[in-house]
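Budget justification aside, the reviewers requested a transparent look at the raw inputs and outputs of the sequence design task funded under Objective 1. We therefore reproduce one unedited record. The lines immediately below are the structure tokens for a 102-residue chain.
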């Protein structure tokens, strides 16, 4: 095993840089953390369509029919995550047993 020696000042400088990098990554992680309240999270049209497993045209039809609440900000359609969860929960149906004829 090789031993590497480093000047004390250089070591302190390196340790401070590593600490700053660590703190930066921690701050970025906190910014990206999803809030626990889904009514405060807004998602875009594409993400909503993906979560609902429908096309963006279907989302447009749902908006036009007044079946989903939305907001338009800066020309982009946004949905609250809680609204998307409501739609997902509303389309759950009890499982029917398959018949032998199908």
């Amino acid at each position: 095993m090789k031993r590497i020696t480093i000047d004390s000042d250089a070591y302190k400088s390196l340790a401070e840089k590593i600490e700053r990098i660590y703190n930066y990554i921690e701050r970025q992680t906190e910014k990206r953390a999803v809030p626990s309240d889904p009514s405060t999270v807004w998602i875009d049209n594409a993400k909503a369509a993906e979560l609902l497993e429908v096309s963006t045209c279907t989302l447009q039809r749902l908006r036009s029919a007044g079946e989903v609440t939305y907001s338009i900000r800066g020309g982009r359609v946004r949905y609250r995550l809680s609204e998307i969860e409501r739609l997902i929960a509303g389309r759950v149906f009890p499982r029917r047993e398959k018949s032998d004829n199908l």
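The longest strand covers residues 76-80. The chain has a mean pLDDT of 84. Computational costs for records of this kind are itemized in the attached budget.
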